Amino acid sequence: MDGESTGRSGGFIRSILQNTITRNRIMQKNVTGQKWIVFAFDETDNTAKTGDAAQITAEISADGAAGGGNITDTNPTELEDGYYVFDITQGESNADLLLILPESSTGNIQVIGVPGSVYTTEANRNKASVDTNGRIDVIKIAGTTQTANDNGADINTLITETAKVPKSDSTVTWNATALASIEAEAVDALESFNLDKLMGVATGVAADANLDAIVVDGSVLSHIMAGNALTDTYNASTDSLQAARDHVGDGSNLTEAGGDGDHLTEAGGTGDHLIAINLPNQTMEIIGNITGNLSGSVGSVTGGATEAKQDIIDTVVDAIKVVTDDFADSATTLVSGTVSHDNTPATTTVFFSDDVTEATADHYNGRIVIFTSGALQNQATDITDYELSAGEGKFTVTALTEAPGDNITFVIV
């Protein structure tokens, strides 16, 4: 065989050995106790070279770098038919791509890796066993070596415990221990947020005492209990539902509480109660009572007075009646409304209302608007211009101390 055919044959053998066997070669990264097979052959006749272990050495190239010097296993162990095996240390396998570079000091002897190079895998990736039925044999779970009995016992336990879960047809029920455990967990969860004290457990806090150890400031319930969401300001004697019911009573408290009539606007807070309680009619009744009683009282006092004095008294009574008549007429012209930000937010000089929608421009010019809720409550200013804009009443006023908030109420007098 000439040199050219010998070289071709050697290259063919090398290609077959390196490419075919590479597909089946697995080496794990950074793992001790691994081996690498090499094949030695005489390049003059392509016959396997035996008995050459003492002359064979190898280097390993890691991740494409140059060889790092002879591997720790200086000479391989001979197998047979030209095959030799090197022991690979843990450090020598610590790379993603490994290339073995074997050689022989014997003339005309070529040595190649079987395979020549490998891509490593993570440690222990492919140590699962598969039986002839395609089932995986689990060797370890969480680092603990398993036996057939371990796995079988675990699976049987799992089946038994799963059977305790209630099914849709209610054929299986939980045992008393499981139910007690679930109940205990539920109770613990309720107690951790003081929810047990809503109905089933006493708070242990005396009436009118501070509840902030039970209801956290800023919680939804604290917002319901106290206007400032601070539970320690809540007082059961004045703020409870019973206290509110007792305060309102049968409705007479709207005028009787305090005797100052301030409940006319505070009840509901919208100011529209001035109309709801039929203020014009009640005003006329008050005027009638004042006029009649005053006239009667004056008459009784001046029964023996002269006619001249009677004329003076009549004149005074007539003057009082003129004033009270004007008051009755004014009461019928009160207009209540609500600030709207639906189209345009309010400013200190302009605001809109979606329930005062008079179509005539300048209709309210010169009148006084008094706010009955919100930050501007009881503040009054004069209306300098009015028009209907985009379906809402637009009011221009002398500057307020701040812009009216959305949905606050007002009265035009």
Protein traits:
disordered N terminus; 6-stranded antiparallel β-barrel; 413 residues; Immunoglobulin-like; 5-stranded antiparallel sheet; alpha+beta
Low-confidence stretches: 1-10, 20-24, 255-259, 263-269, 273-280, 297-302
Strand order in the largest sheet: 13-14-17-16-15-18
Largest sheet: 6 strands, antiparallel, barrel
Roughly how many Å is the radius of gyration?
51 Å
Total of DSSP H or I helical runs spanning 4+ residues: 11
Q: H/E order of the elements?
A: HEEEEEEEEEEEEHHHHHHHHHHEEEEEE
Number of strands: 18
CATH fold label of the domain at 3-119? Immunoglobulin-like
Proportion of beta-strand residues: 15-25%
**Structural class, from secondary structure content?**
alpha+beta
Mean pLDDT: 79
CATH architecture of the domain at 3-119: Sandwich
Through-space gap between termini: 125 Å
Bin the helical content: 25-40%
Shape: elongated
Summarize the structure.
The protein is an alpha+beta fold and 413 residues long. The protein is 31% helix and 21% strand.
Overview of this protein structure:
- This protein is of the alpha+beta class and 413 residues long.
- Among the domains are: 117 residues, Immunoglobulin-like, CATH 2.60.40; 34 residues, no CATH class; 55 residues, no CATH class; 78 residues.
- It is built from eleven helices and 18 strands.
- The strands form five sheets. Strands 13-14-17-16-15-18 form a six-stranded antiparallel barrel. Strands 1, 2, 4, 5 and 7 form a five-stranded antiparallel beta sheet that branches. Strands 3-6-8 form a three-stranded antiparallel beta sheet, with no helix packed on it.
- A hairpin with a 2-residue loop joins strand 16 and strand 17.
- It is elongated, with a radius of gyration of 51 Å.
- The N terminus is likely disordered.
